[in-house]
Design brief:
The complex is a heterodimer of chains A (392) and B (332).
Chain A (H helix, E strand, L loop, with lengths): L2 H9 L9 E11 L11 E12 L4 E5 L6 H8 L7 E6 L2 E2 L7 H7 L2 E4 L13 H11 L6 H14 L5 H4 L9 H14 L4 E5 L7 H18 L2 E6 L2 H7 L2 E6 L2 E7 H6 L4 H9 L3 H5 L33 H5 L5 E2 L5 E2 L26 H8 L21
Parallel strand pairs in A: 3-8, 3-9, 6-7, 7-8
Antiparallel strand pairs in A: 1-2, 1-4, 4-5, 9-10, 10-12, 11-12
Chain B lengths: L2 H9 L19 H19 L1 H23 L30 H37 L1 H16 L2 H11 L4 H12 L1 H15 L2 H8 L4 H9 L4 H24 L10 H10 L8 H29 L5 H4 L4 H8 L1
The chains are: A alpha/beta (392), B mainly alpha (332).
Chain lengths: 392, 332
């Protein structure tokens, strides 16, 4: 992506580009079916509050480590899971989340999911022809065997599986990982969707073919104006691939904005931690050490930490972080974060007694910003009812 | 050709295209016929590659042939009586005669047709019921699963043969009654087995992928999940047929079937009625008994063979017969 492209994207106001698919305040709890004699039934709080919008011809990346709820978001958008609460809008129209049968099939004609593991997502006993013919038949794009064959061959060529005539009769076990993922992409394309949800499409593939698959998805996005959701744990590939990046931690969206902004000027301590974990040749050449100590791991989602779920790992954690989840703070250029270091939605940074002393080198910039409002000590009183995360 | 040139050629290849050394003209084949031929060849390979399966299936094939063509070869009418009662095997009566002078060899040929036909048909229906109940219950889960599991569990703990004896005595006598009662009392075990398998299968990603592409539930159950369980279903079918043969014979032996039809069970019933064991008329009860034992053993052999084929450690035996084009690909 060139700089000029990036600029045009930023300069065109969002009003010009209508979002194809929008999600607002999606939340998903998976009830645990364990019998408890005492206490309320428990649940895994996989996604707490996720909002995003997908635009035609643009890619949005969702990054986060395992268990952060990225896949759950994709599966809710693909309508494989029913959200516990929240709204999904397709072309501005709210989607009926109770719909089954024909209505659900109509939705899936527009929104398709690519799975993470191409070794598991293809049925071992069916041929490539069967895999690609089913969506064509189900959605009424092909009515006889000849139409079917023609369209399958065209699909195979679109995903660069040539000679297509040879691949059409093959079985999954005869294909490599990259070839299988191309079949999976072709299967999603067979439906002729407007939105493609790619759930870690390259994480199970050999490093040498990852870029091929990513470039294939980029080409499809540009040529067919597909709206792409790209889910990954690799923040570097998000920068390469997507115009917009959202960072998730333990089911909460903590930071988002244009990919260049988020990856070059990360604000949230978790994003900084993620970036410091990604290998960076420049930093390594400069002989710098990791800026943030990578400590701890993702918390239990059955009993998540109160307030901001990152606070047990955060070097800047404050008392207020335990009490509630901060509101969204706009940082300019479409960049936003949910962190008390930068304010609580009103732009006023929250300063209070630190739980732990921040590591001296760690994110000097953010410490400075945090210290700017000293004196006023605007410790916001815990408002237990208002914040979405205070349900526990 | 110089080495450098060669390397350059390789380096510029598209990663997912097949090298140009691959035969351009892939043998054109009409895919449906070719697929059928391939499948038949595969079945033949499976039948012949394992000795147990080979022996078992030849015996079963022999019985099937006898069931189909046997009655055409029968020298006498199996129910016709004669004055030659209780004669030992001879040139005229290869397996001797009964107390009423019926030819036992002819009876055996006719009896094979009836026993094999009803045995396999009932086995098939029992398997069908278990497949439908097991897969539907496992795939849908929730309240459907709760209800079907409850029914399955109830039928699992009911002692099958005593219930069958009571039920057969209650309804009008005939093969249809026996078939229905055997189906009723025997479907639950395999249903349970297939439900467990389906439970693990439905969370597999290709099932989720099929749902995401808009497939209907019944299509997913019978076209995505069922073919992956075909090995278990085949094994279940074979063992069910053994059980059905034995149950069928037992019910007829007890006189609960139609004793006027000729089958292995009714032959044993009449042999028992005439005290053939105490009179030393071994040629009366031994042939149907041997047939049941032999067919049962053959089916058991097939089942052992299926186990061996399913065991990955023994899979090398089949993998020698990899499709030709794969071998070629490996070489190029």
């Amino acid at each position: 992506m060139s700089v000029s492209e990036q600029l045009t994207v930023q300069q065109t106001p969002e009003k010009v580009l209508e979002p194809v698919l929008e999600a607002e305040h999606l939340r998903k709890d998976f009830p645990l079916r364990t019998v408890r004699l005492f206490g309320p039934p428990r649940a895994v709080h996989a996604v707490e509050d996720a909002s995003l919008a997908l635009y035609p011809g643009r890619a949005t990346a969702v990054v986060g480590e395992s268990g952060s709820g990225k896949t759950t978001v994709a599966r809710m958008l693909a309508r494989l899971y029913d959200p516990t609460s929240g709204v999904i809008r397709f072309h501005g129209q709210p989607v009926d989340l109770k719909a089954r049968g024909q209505a659900l099939r109509t939705y899936r004609r527009h929104v398709q999911l690519i799975f993470q593991d191409p070794f598991a997502s293809l049925n071992p006993i069916h041929s490539v022809r069967y895999h690609l013919s089913r969506p064509l038949r189900v959605h009424g794009h092909a009515h006889n065997r000849q139409e079917e064959t023609e369209q399958i061959l065209a699909l195979l060529r679109r995903v660069s599986l040539t000679p297509a005539e040879q691949f059409i009769e093959k079985y999954p076990y005869q294909l490599s990982g990259g070839q299988r993922q191309r079949i999976a992409i072709a299967r999603a394309l067979a439906v002729r969707p407007e939105v493609l949800l790619a759930d870690e499409p390259v994480s199970m593939l050999d490093v040498s073919i990852r870029l091929d698959i990513l470039n294939l998805l980029l080409r499809l996005k540009d040529e067919e104006q597909l709206a792409l959701l790209y889910i990954t744990h690799d923040i570097a590939s998000a920068r390469y691939f997507a115009e917009e990046t959202l960072v998730m931690y333990a089911g909460q969206m903590v930071e988002g904005g244009p990919s260049e902004e988020v990856t070059q000027r990360p604000k949230h301590p978790y994003t900084q931690l993620l970036l410091s974990a990604a290998p960076d040749p420049d930093r390594m050449m400069a002989g710098q050490k990791l800026q943030l100590p990578a400590r701890g791991e993702i918390p239990s989602l059955i009993n998540p930490p109160s307030g901001c779920r990152f606070h047990p790992r955060c070097p800047h954690a404050m008392e207020v972080c335990r009490q509630r989840f901060p509101r969204r703070t706009q940082l300019g250029n479409g960049h936003w974060a949910h962190c008390f270091l930068y304010g609580d939605g009103d732009g006023e940074p929250v300063v209070s007694a630190r739980l732990k002393t921040a590591s001296s080198t760690g994110a000097a910039e953010s410490t400075a910003t945090g210290g700017a409002g000293l004196g006023t000590s605007s410790l916001t009183p815990p408002s237990s009812g208002a914040s979405p995360s205070s349900q526990s | 050709m110089s080495l450098g040139k060669d390397l350059k050629h390789v380096a510029t290849l598209e990663p997912e295209t097949i090298p140009s050394t691959f035969p351009k003209k892939f043998p054109r084949r009409d895919s449906r016929l070719a697929r059928l031929g391939e499948n038949l060849r595969l079945v033949w390979r499976v039948l012949t590659s394992n000795r147990k399966v080979a022996i078992g299936s030849s015996i079963v094939a022999f019985f099937l042939l006898v069931a189909i063509f046997g009655p055409l070869l029968a020298p006498y009418d199996p129910t016709a009586t004669s004055r030659l009662s209780e004669t030992p095997p001879s040139a005229a009566h290869w397996l001797g005669t009964t107390a009423t002078g019926q030819d036992i060899f002819s009876q055996l040929l006719y009896g094979t047709r009836s026993s094999v036909f009803w045995g396999f048909l009932t086995g098939l229906l029992v398997t069908l019921v278990s497949v439908v109940v097991g897969l539907v219950s496992g795939y849908f889960g929730g309240i459907i699963d709760e209800i079907l599991s409850l029914v399955t569990n109830v039928f699992l703990v009911i002692p099958a043969l005593p219930l069958a004896i009571v039920a057969v005595g209650y309804f009008p006598k005939g093969p249809l009654t026996i078939a229905l009662v055997i189906i009723l009392t025997n479907w639950s075990f395999n249903a349970r087995l297939l439900r467990a398998q389906t439970l693990s299968m439905r969370s597999r990603e290709f099932v989720t992928a099929a749902r995401a592409s808009g497939e209907s539930a019944w299509r997913i159950i019978f076209f995505e999940i069922f073919p992956n369980e075909i090995g278990i279903v085949a094994a279940a079918f074979v063992s069910t047929v053994i059980f059905v043969l034995l149950a069928w014979t037992a019910l007829e032996f007890l006189g609960l079937g139609d004793i006027n039809t000729v089958s292995w069970g009714s032959m044993l019933y009449w042999a028992q009625q005439s005290d053939s064991i105490f009179s030393g008329l071994w040629w009366w009860f031994a042939p149907p008994g041997c047939c049941i034992a032999l067919l049962g053993a053959a089916l058991a052999l097939i089942n052992f063979g299926i186990d061996e084929i399913a065991d990955p450690r023994l899979r090398s035996e089949i993998s020698e017969h990899v499709p030709k084009e794969l071998k070629e690909k490996a070489v190029t």
